[in-house]
């Protein structure tokens, strides 16, 4: 029976329309072919909690139109139902002192594809405050709240972020080929930049079809032809979300064995006969990161080569051991280490 309800992991929501009434936001999500429609309701009358619920029904196109019409008529006395924005996924929700904010992708651009799965970058994003102005307290306008909000908006999601609805881009090609694919997107992966931002939504809804898993780094794909043979080369760099920070401010390792400036780079070469699994492909992965010891550097304009300061004596190299155990778990042995220190 083709009319039965599809399993949430068997399709992905890729296109959304955001509507609002006085009391609620309605996010209408559909798959790429606009065959299945889902409805997410977000309560605007709750000043400090994230009150969201998913309609269990999978709607065909016509029924979703009828539903919106009913919602509009039912809210006519308080201003009806209004269209807010076209959306391409939720980056996450965050709360500082009181109210929740929701970060949305409002424009996207395809930057490539892997085995027929589209990879996107963000062209435009929007942050909206969830509670209606009538229920917001003075906290919403406090200096500290505004400062946090400004810090959040200073993150430019249009640079160096990429994602896919259907391909786990945070994992290497080899890992994806060997996985069963049943588990959906692995948001707990170290290369999912917005793992924390999406946690509130994912834990409440018990699925991850409304959010996108963003990777911070770089994605570049080129089509080449040599002696009449077509192939594509993809270069992907993924930055770890653990122990992250700028170059001189974060160095070495932390207590959990996570190192600073931890980046995995993958080069995929795909024989482009068909653009599908039929062509031959290869993937090479290498990792770079800070030396896994407790060390730091005081950067200054006067010293082009700041001194290396060993902050802490770790006689058993416990954190270093944790780091190499993690590498072995992720990539298997042997691990070959290159020293890049001048």
TrEMBL record:
Chain ranges of the SAC domain: 152-342
Keywords in alphabetical order: Hydrolase, Membrane, Vacuole
Domain of life: Eukaryota
GO cellular component, one term: vacuolar membrane
Subcellular location: Vacuole membrane
Membrane disposition: Peripheral membrane protein
GO process terms (BP): phosphatidylinositol dephosphorylation
Catalytic activity: a 1,2-diacyl-sn-glycero-3-phospho-(1D-myo-inositol-3,5-bisphosphate) + H2O = a 1,2-diacyl-sn-glycero-3-phospho-(1D-myo-inositol-3-phosphate) + phosphate
InterPro entries on file: Fig4-like, SAC_dom
Keyword Nucleotide-binding included in the entry's annotation: no
Predominant location: membrane
Pfam family membership, one: Syja_N
Molecular-function GO terms, alphabetical: phosphatidylinositol-3,5-bisphosphate 5-phosphatase activity
Subunit structure: Component of the PI(3,5)P2 regulatory complex at least composed of ATG18, SAC/FIG4, FAB1 and VAC14.
Protein name per Swiss-Prot or TrEMBL: SAC domain-containing protein
Organism of provenance: Genlisea aurea
Lineage: Eukaryota, Viridiplantae, Streptophyta, Embryophyta, Tracheophyta
């Amino acid at each position: 029976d083709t009319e039965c309800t599809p399993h949430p992991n068997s399709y992905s929501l890729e296109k959304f329309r955001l509507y609002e009434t006085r009391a609620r936001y309605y996010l209408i999500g559909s798959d790429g072919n606009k065959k299945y429609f889902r409805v997410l309701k977000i309560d605007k009358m709750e000043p400090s909690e994230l009150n969201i619920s998913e309609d269990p029904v999978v709607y065909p196109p016509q029924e979703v139109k009828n539903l919106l019409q009913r919602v509009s008529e039912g809210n006519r006395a308080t201003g009806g139902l209004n269209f807010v924005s076209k959306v391409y996924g939720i980056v996450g929700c965050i709360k500082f002192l009181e109210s929740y904010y929701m970060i949305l992708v409002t424009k996207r651009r395809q930057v490539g594809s892997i085995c027929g799965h589209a990879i996107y970058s963000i062209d435009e994003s929007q942050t909206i405050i969830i509670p209606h102005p009538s229920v917001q307290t003075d906290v919403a306008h406090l200096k500290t709240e505004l400062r946090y909000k400004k810090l959040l908006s200073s993150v430019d999601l249009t640079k160096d972020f990429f994602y896919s609805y259907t391909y786990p881009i945070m994992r290497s090609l080899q890992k994806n080929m060997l996985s069963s694919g049943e588990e959906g997107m692995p948001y707990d992966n170290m290369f999912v930049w917005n793992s924390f931002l999406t946690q509130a939504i994912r834990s409440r809804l018990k699925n991850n079809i409304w959010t996108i898993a963003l990777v911070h780094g770089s994605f570049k794909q080129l089509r080449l032809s040599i002696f009449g043979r077509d192939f594509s080369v993809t270069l992907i760099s993924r930055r770890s979300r653990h122990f992250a920070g700028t170059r001189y401010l974060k160095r070495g390792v932390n207590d959990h064995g996570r190192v600073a400036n931890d980046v995995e780079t993958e080069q995929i070469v795909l024989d482009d006969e068909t653009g599908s699994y039929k062509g031959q492909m290869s993937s090479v992965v290498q990792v770079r990161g800070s030396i896994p010891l407790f060390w730091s550097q005081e950067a200054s304009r006067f010293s082009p080569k700041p001194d290396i300061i060993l902050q802490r004596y770790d006689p058993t190299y416990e954190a270093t051991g944790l780091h190499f155990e993690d590498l072995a778990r992720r990539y298997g042995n042997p691990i070959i280490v290159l020293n890049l220190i001048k």
